[in-house]
């Protein structure tokens, strides 16, 4: 049985600028994998290559389908929900409309709004409000809730805690942990807050200037000397 | 007084046609950020198709329905083939391509149908209805009813269907739309298709009042530009209201201001466009970002 | 002497000899090409160098044409004396349009100027006391002067127009290469930087509009001199569209392109009419679209690209090269002050 997501020898970039050099990684069914590294190391680019937002060289397979170079909207149909950095909610649309759009690519059943509102009660209170009027934290919740509407097999999360107050960040990761346990959703998480994500990830990769320089289980990566110095601060 | 009311009603009726074409402009502007200079010519072409079908013995109502279907497909094909390669390009590129389309379609129509005037049958009966003591032509009532019907249908589609929601999303943020699985390209095609349908309706509504020839929509498109500018280029309701205001202003100016008279009526939309752009560039109902485009 | 200068001189000699090798009918067509070239050059100054879109240059062309026609027909002025007047009036009109244009961005400016083009024939008809309305106004072309009596009428008119065109082109070339041109390019490509360097955006843009309109006006005068008659139908919005086509076909931000563009808009309809009167429009439209896809730098851009190829492999867009060089130059110049 092959992994849910297989990235093999991927090179990608913007125009003539190559950002990723020979990236290979896997995310198994139900597994959580963290992508760590400094700004500009290529974490976001990796997620973009996987969801087809830019055209990579190499090979990317999702659930056995070769999706290298496939259009984003078709990759989404395989159950891949990408929450981009900076959230990407539709500001002029209401919370409810944003959530309904999250279920756009789902094949079975209508959008299950109630479940989203159970996970994020604040969104329920604001369901008819325009997304643009929400606070930053609420918009981040909305972005995650919208991604969950797809009932994804794989979530790509780009800096979910960026700009969130510490208590909101804890709340967010609680929800993610719950989703992971209840539904076995696999996740590939890019996160600055390495401590936080390593606590709940199964495996981790460290990127440096477009290459993977360290891979292992979350514990192995946490234990690595250079990693500790560079990212964990102890 | 009676003459004033008649002028007013006439203005609203004519304004409904401007509104329909302005709606087409707004649909395209909202989804692709393009001001489609060729919109009027596409409408004229559609009207010729309807005329051809009627000449071939097909009843008017059915001919118009068929025309709307052909226009929908035609609009989609034009977006896919001609517009897609330059989407997101520089303004000059976009303006030039839609102007090229304008000239091309106008030329094609002259080639196929020649430049002679042709009569086009009206959808509405002659005569007038009596509304609280004022005779209102059935045609005027019909024009307003058709426009309201179009707005109603568009509103239902955009506010109450998943397809409409997806189209709005694609217009707001194409990248985020792809991430939720919306085929953005197909939404843009549909936007052009819907616009072509609105334009075709404007064409078959205006043709009976004028004569059908390849320059049918030349003046109408200017009034519709004014309507869309006044209402706000991204506001469908603004387009309709703008159409009515322009229609009434035109009728009043033509009827009451001697200097303007019938020859210079064209200055009305021009004045409105210029005034709106200088005083409130986003129009009455548009969002301010549009002005910066 | 640079190769470009030699090429221009050869071209000028050919242009002078041209009327002696063609029929009178063709020569008149070439004379119109000269007028259109001046108009296209004017529009290109605006479009290519200051980046403002005008779909209404036919209006300035008409204004110039009528100024000449009215002064000649009603006040008995000599033809050539009307040209500075036409230029001045059109410059003033262009300046007046340029002021609101400052507040209008791309598409909206296109809209307003399109309106101007559409309204032009109506305005001509409305002021029929002055313009002769739908009837038109006859202002017979100047006759061959005695000392040139070996020339036929058409040859004389051609050479007269050529004599008007040459200084217009020399002036334009000087303008775009000089300080003003570089400032304009900076304004077009990077308005914010231009502002930072102290380029007065508003002043340059309105002046560009005025100069551009003056060119169109002079072209209009040339038209009247050539044709000897003006009527509203000659100045519909299709005329403005052809000017745009000429600029696009010839190449944006090139001086030489105006000539290619003018040849295109004069001769395509002539040859297309053999097949169908509407074919010219179909070709115009198709070519406008096609050029935007495959040859956005126009004919002159293509020529430059061919010439640049061996030296600058991998450079895809010749205009970009120009922009970079010109933009940088203007920046340095302003900084040095």
TrEMBL record, chain A:
InterPro entries assigned to the protein according to its UniProt record, in alphabetical order: AAA+_ATPase (IPR003593), ABC_transporter-like_ATP-bd (IPR003439), ABC_transporter-like_CS (IPR017871), BCAA_Transport_ATP-bd_LivF (IPR052156), P-loop_NTPase (IPR027417)
Keywords annotated in UniProt: Amino-acid transport, ATP-binding, Nucleotide-binding, Transport
ABC transporter domain residues: 5-234
GO molecular function annotations of the record: ATP binding; ATP hydrolysis activity; branched-chain amino acid transmembrane transporter activity
One example of a Gene Ontology biological process annotation: L-amino acid transport
Family from the record: Belongs to the ABC transporter superfamily.
Protein name: ABC transporter ATP-binding protein
Annotated organism of origin: Solirubrobacter phytolaccae
Source species taxonomy: Bacteria, Bacillati, Actinomycetota, Thermoleophilia, Solirubrobacterales
From TrEMBL, chain B:
Subcellular location: Cell membrane
InterPro entries recorded: ABC_transp_permease (IPR001851), BCAA_transport_permease (IPR052157)
GO molecular function: transmembrane transporter activity
Superkingdom to which the source organism belongs: Bacteria
Membrane topology note: Multi-pass membrane protein
Alphabetical UniProt keywords: Amino-acid transport, Cell membrane, Membrane, Transmembrane, Transmembrane helix, Transport
CDD domains: TM_PBP1_LivH_like
Family, per entry: Belongs to the binding-protein-dependent transport system permease family. LivHM subfamily.
Protein name per the record: Branched-chain amino acid ABC transporter permease
TrEMBL record, chain C:
Membrane topology reported for the UniProt record: Multi-pass membrane protein
Membrane spanning stretches: 6-23, 30-49, 55-73, 80-99, 105-124, 156-176, 208-231, 243-272, 278-303
Gene Ontology molecular function, alphabetical: branched-chain amino acid transmembrane transporter activity
Signal peptide from the UniProt entry: none
Intracellular or extracellular location(s): Cell membrane
Keyword Cell membrane: yes
Any single GO CC term annotated in Swiss-Prot or TrEMBL for this entry: plasma membrane
Main location per the UniProt record: membrane
Protein name: Branched-chain amino acid ABC transporter permease
Lineage of producing organism: Bacteria, Bacillati, Actinomycetota, Thermoleophilia, Solirubrobacterales
């Amino acid at each position: 049985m092959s992994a849910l997501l297989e990235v093999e020898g991927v090179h990608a970039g913007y125009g003539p600028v190559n950002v990723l050099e020979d990236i290979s990684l896997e995310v198994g069914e139900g597994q959580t994998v963290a992508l760590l590294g400094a700004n500009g190391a290529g974490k976001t680019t990796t997620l973009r290559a996987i969801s087809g937002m830019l055209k990579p060289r190499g090979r990317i397979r999702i659930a056995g389908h070769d999706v290298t170079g496939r259009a984003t909207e078709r990759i989404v149909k395989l159950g891949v929900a990408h929450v981009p950095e900076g959230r990407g909610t539709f500001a002029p649309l209401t919370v409810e409309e944003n959530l309904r759009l999250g279920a756009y690519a789902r094949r079975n059943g209508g959008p299950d709004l109630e479940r989203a509102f159970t996970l994020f009660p604040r969104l329920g209170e604001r369901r008819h409000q325009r997304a643009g009027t929400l606070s930053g934290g609420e918009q981040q919740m909305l972005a995650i809730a919208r991604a969950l509407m797809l009932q994804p097999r794989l979530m790509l999360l780009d800096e979910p805690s960026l700009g969130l107050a510490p208590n909101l960040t804890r709340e967010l990761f609680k929800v993610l942990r719950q989703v992971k346990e209840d539904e076995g959703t696999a996740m590939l998480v890019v996160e600055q807050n390495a401590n936080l994500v390593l606590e709940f990830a199964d495996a981790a990769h460290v990127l440096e200037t477009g290459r993977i320089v360290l891979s292992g289980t979350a514990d192995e990566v946490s234990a690595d000397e250079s990693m500790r110095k560079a990212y964990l601060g102890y | 007084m009676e003459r004033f009311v008649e002028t007013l009603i006439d203005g609203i009726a004519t304004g409904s046609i401007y509104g329909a074409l302005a709606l087409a402009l707004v649909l395209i502007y909202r989804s692709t950020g393009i001001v489609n200079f060729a919109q009027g010519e596409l409408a004229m072409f559609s009207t010729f198709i309807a005329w051809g079908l009627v000449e071939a013995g097909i009843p008017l109502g059915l001919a118009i329905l068929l025309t709307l279907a052909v226009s929908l497909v035609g609009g989609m094909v034009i977006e896919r083939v001609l517009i897609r390669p330059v989407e997101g390009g520089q303004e000059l590129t976009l303006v030039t391509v839609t102007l090229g389309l304008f000239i091309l379609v106008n030329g094609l129509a002259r080639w196929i149908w020649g430049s002679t005037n042709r009569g086009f049958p009206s959808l509405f009966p002659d005569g007038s209805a009596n509304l609280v003591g004022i005779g209102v032509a059935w045609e005027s009532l019909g024009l307003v009813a058709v426009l309201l019907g179009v707005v109603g249908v568009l509103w239902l589609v955009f506010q109450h269907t998943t397809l409409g929601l997806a189209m709005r999303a694609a217009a707001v943020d194409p990248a985020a739309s792809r991430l939720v699985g919306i085929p953005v390209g197909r939404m843009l095609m549909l936007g052009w298709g819907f616009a072509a349908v609105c334009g075709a309706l404007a064409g078959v509504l205006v043709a009976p009042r004028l004569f059908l020839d390849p320059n049918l929509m030349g003046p109408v498109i200017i009034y519709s530009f004014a309507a869309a500018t006044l209402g706000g280029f991204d506001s469908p309701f603004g387009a309709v209201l703008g159409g009515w205001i322009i229609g009434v202003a035109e009728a009043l100016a033509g009827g009451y201001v001697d200097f303007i008279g019938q020859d210079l009526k064209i200055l009305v939309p021009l004045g409105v466009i210029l005034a709106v752009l200088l005083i409130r560039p986003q129009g009455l109902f548009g969002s301010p970002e549009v002005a910066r485009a | 002497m640079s190769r470009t200068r030699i090429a221009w001189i050869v071209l000028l000699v050919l242009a002078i000899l041209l009327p002696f090798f063609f029929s009178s009918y063709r020569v008149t067509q070439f004379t119109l090409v000269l007028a259109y070239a001046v108009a296209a050059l004017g529009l290109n100054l605006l479009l290519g160098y200051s980046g403002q879109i005008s779909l209404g240059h036919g209006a300035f062309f008409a204004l110039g044409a009528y100024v000449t026609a009215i002064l000649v027909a009603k006040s008995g002025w000599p033809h050539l004396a009307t040209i500075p007047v036409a230029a001045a009036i059109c410059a003033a009109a262009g300046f007046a349009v340029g002021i609101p244009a400052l507040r209008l961005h791309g598409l909206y400016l296109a809209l307003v100027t399109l309106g101007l083009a559409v309204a032009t024939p109506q305005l001509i008809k409305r002021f029929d006391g002055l313009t002769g309305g739908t009837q038109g106004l006859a202002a017979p072309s100047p006759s061959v002067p005695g000392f040139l009596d070996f020339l036929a009428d058409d040859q004389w008119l051609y050479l007269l127009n050529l004599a008007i065109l040459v200084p217009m082109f020399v002036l334009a070339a000087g303008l775009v290469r000089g300080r003003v041109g570089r400032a304009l390019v900076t304004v077009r490509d990077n308005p914010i930087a231009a502002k930072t360097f102290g380029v007065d955006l508003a002043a340059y843009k309105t002046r560009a509009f005025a100069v551009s309109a003056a060119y169109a006006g002079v072209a209009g005068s040339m038209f009247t001199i050539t044709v000897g008659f003006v009527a509203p139908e000659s100045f519909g919005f299709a005329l403005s569209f052809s000017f745009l086509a000429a600029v696009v076909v010839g190449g944006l931000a090139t001086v030489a392109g105006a000539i290619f563009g003018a040849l295109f808009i004069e001769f395509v309809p002539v040859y297309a009419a053999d097949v169908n009167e509407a074919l010219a429009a179909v070709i115009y439209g198709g070519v406008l679209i096609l050029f935007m896809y495959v040859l956005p730098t126009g004919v002159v851009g293509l020529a430059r690209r061919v010439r640049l190829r061996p030296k600058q492999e991998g450079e895809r867009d010749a205009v970009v090269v120009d922009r970079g060089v010109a933009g940088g130059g203007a920046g340095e110049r302003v900084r040095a002050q």
